[in-house]
């Protein structure tokens, strides 16, 4: 069996990893993002350079804080809900990794997928995000969501209850502080006098919001520059997109640029990508390895490079 057939078969069995980024940007053709994580840290720079050279537009960078010895949480995007695959995996902090990758690339965007926002103080996130955006020449896309791990909240001393309120206030604070002027906030979760941060990027950092629940979709429609789909049953995707469009109409935001990031098998064929484009998809995010296995990633760098280039030849070049 050819390697490309093998990873497509693997995806059919486990349709949760290979992401497609979709949305309402005005650039015309679907764009392509490359996903790789929990691998040898020395691999990231050559993979980013190769992805840029092969015609990918973005690279997604996930976020994980720590691995607890004892946990009652389940991982919603692994079919069996287990999270043991995370133990001892090399999971680099996104705001540290992205500047390093930005230094070896010129055009590639970097999408955090996703920063666990309610467990962090938004002033710190605003400072990190604006600094990274400046260092990369405006190539950061800030994907945010709420962590599925209660343990993340507990270890950082942040209450699990009220995380939706914290999320909403944090989004307002990110927007306010990123403008470059003095900003103050007085809410239930956060309260501070006027402050400002510098430098800030010339253009605002796009903020994409993840989640499948109605509250998350409503938040994305109201406050986001896009939405991040976490995977799941492919049959659910059209309904999620339709609900998102409905909520954008209700919020009065339907006319502004909007990215929608989804997971779909259609990302792996030319005809499938065109079907996604017909649905309003702007970016498809693709990965070529099932990551939810216990133990280290043993796939050599050369094989990773071959897979991302083969996809570029088989799909990206033919779509564009």
Please characterize this protein's 3D structure.
With 320 residues, the protein is of the alpha/beta class. Helices cover 38% and strands 16% of the residues. It contains 10 helices and 12 strands. Helix 7 (214-223) packs across helix 8 (237-251). The longest helix is centred in the last third of the chain and has 19 residues, at 301-319. It is globular, with a radius of gyration of 19 Å. The two termini are 28 Å apart. 41% of the residues are buried.
H/I helix tally: 10
Q: What percent of residues are in strands?
A: 15-25%
Low-confidence stretches: 1-27
| Rg of Cα set | 19 Å
Helix/strand order: HEEHEHEEHEHHEEEHEHEHEH
- Secondary structure: helix percent: 25-40%
Got a strand count? 12
Mean pLDDT: 88
Oligomeric description of these chains: single chain
Query: Main beta sheet: strand number and arrangement?
Result: 10 strands, mixed
Dominant shape: globular
State the end-to-end CA separation: 28 Å
Instruction: State the secondary-structure class.
Output: alpha/beta
């Amino acid at each position: 069996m050819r390697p490309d057939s093998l990873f497509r078969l693997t995806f059919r069995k486990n349709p949760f990893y290979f992401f497609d980024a979709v949305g309402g940007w005005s650039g015309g053709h679907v764009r392509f993002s490359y996903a790789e994580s929990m691998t040898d840290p020395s691999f990231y720079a050559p993979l980013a350079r190769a992805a840029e050279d092969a015609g990918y537009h973005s690279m997604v960078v996930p976020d994980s804080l720590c691995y607890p010895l004892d946990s009652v949480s389940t991982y919603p995007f692994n079919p069996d809900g287990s999270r043991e695959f995370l133990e001892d995996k090399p999971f680099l902090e996104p705001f540290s990794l992205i500047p390093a990758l930005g230094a070896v690339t010129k055009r590639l965007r970097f999408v955090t997928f996703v920063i666990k926002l309610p467990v962090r103080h938004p002033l710190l996130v605003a400072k990190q995000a604006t600094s990274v955006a400046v260092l990369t020449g405006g190539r950061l896309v800030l994907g945010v969501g709420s962590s599925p791990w209660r343990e993340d909240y507990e270890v950082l001393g942040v209450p699990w209850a009220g995380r939706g309120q914290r999320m909403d206030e944090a989004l307002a604070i990110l927007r306010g502080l990123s403008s470059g002027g003095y900003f103050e906030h007085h809410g239930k979760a956060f309260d501070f006098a006027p402050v400002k941060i510098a430098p800030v990027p010339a253009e605002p950092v796009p903020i994409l919001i993840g989640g499948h629940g109605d509250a998350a979709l409503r938040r994305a429609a109201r406050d986001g520059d896009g939405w991040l789909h976490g995977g799941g049953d492919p049959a659910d995707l059209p309904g999620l997109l339709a609900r998102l469009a409905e909520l954008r109409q209700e919020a009065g935001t339907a006319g502004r640029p909007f990215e929608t990031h989804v997971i779909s098998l259609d990302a792996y064929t030319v005809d499938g990508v065109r079907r996604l484009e017909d649905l309003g998809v702007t970016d498809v995010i693709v990965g070529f390895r099932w990551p939810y296995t216990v133990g280290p990633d043993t796939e050599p760098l050369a094989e990773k490079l071959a897979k991302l280039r083969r996809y570029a030849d088989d799909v990206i070049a033919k779509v564009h």
